[in-house]
Prior knowledge:
Layout: E1 2-7, E2 13-17, H1 20-23, H2 31-36, H3 53-67, E3 71-75, H4 78-81, H5 90-105, E4 109-113, H6 121-126, H7 134-144, E5 155-160, H8 162-174, H9 189-209, E6 214-220, E7 224-226, H10 231-247, E8 254-259, E9 263-266, E10 269-271, H11 290-302, E11 308-313, H12 320-339, E12 344-350, E13 368-370, E14 377-379, H13 381-392, E15 394-399
Parallel strand pairs: 2-3, 2-12, 3-4, 4-5, 5-6, 6-8, 7-9, 8-11, 11-12
Antiparallel strand pairs: 1-15, 9-10, 13-14
Helix pairs in contact: 7-9, 8-9, 8-10, 11-12, 12-13
Amino acid sequence: xxxxxxxxxxxxxxxxxxxxxxxxxxxxxxxxxxxxxxxxxxxxxxxxxxxxxxxxxxxxxxxxxxxxxxxxxxxxxxxxxxxxxxxxxxxxxxxxxxxxxxxxxxxxxxxxxxxxxxxxxxxxxxxxxxxxxxxxxxxxxxxxxxxxxxxxxxxxxxxxxxxxxxxxxxxxxxxxxxxxxxxxxxxxxxxxxxxxxxxxxxxxxxxxxxxxxxxxxxxxxxxxxxxxxxxxxxxxxxxxxxxxxxxxxxxxxxxxxxxxxxxxxxxxxxxxxxxxxxxxxxxxxxxxxxxxxxxxxxxxxxxxxxxxxxxxxxxxxxxxxxxxxxxxxxxxxxxxxxxxxxxxxxxxxxxxxxxxxxxxxxxxxxxxxxxxxxxxxxxxxxxxxxxxxxxxxxxxxxxx
Length: 400
């Protein structure tokens, strides 16, 4: 076994990602806040203060910069900017602009996500993405966010994981309260068309206002692997859950690749991982090289013209040594993809902080631990190690 290194391409993004609702705390006007406090929803615990990053974002950025990271992906909370339909908060827009300026002052390049799963309660009450005029309402919100990304922001993500939005909508329409043992529910086609339309309209709006901004969106890649005889079944299964969203990004400035594990497909459909495999705190199979497969598949679908950025990749574990091992395997796969000619322009880990993972604080993905009472931040050894790679400008690669 030999150990080699791959040098970062010029301008390579090296950072960590977060989402507003998962770290800010007290997003009382979002649809998720209402869901968290509805006994019928069966949510294990509410977000409440989360990581209190709404007030402590400077501490978060200080730590990331000190660790050696050069990029930070964070999101704007629509429910804060437009808590009531048509009523926009100038204070909240100024708050997110201060975050951009704070990142730049610390040497962190901000990647701004405009929508990361949550919507205002009033938008949900209208019917969400499939309501009449939903696309126009989203574009109006995007337009109002113009001051946030006016200067110093190079990368903007319109919508995070639109395929998962469509999957969740499909599950809700089918009355499913949980996911199947393997694979994903069937996406809602109407929602799929709506979020694609919203993305493409938002891209036009952003480009008209900020021609220097590079805009794209991020896709959740499940790394569907066909077992013998299941090649066509796998392609048919994957297309509505993933490929249609990758195809919709053709012509964008970049596409975000997000992966954590894999899903095997047999002729009869998805196959659960064996009982004896190592699993993470989310019960996903421990499979560090997933991101390499995700990059290669995305490049195959979208073509060579669209740059790839790993915008999320990580592991939920209480054993930080396993996190280092996971990242080592993942980065080796990224390095191999770069050496094979893929246009990979960045790697952002999920997540900067141990945060609220959509119903529970127990799945700890963070590079930085957060005390739930004092909110003290403590960088884990994995954060120190991963940040140092950014300073060294090299990706590790292990070859057998």
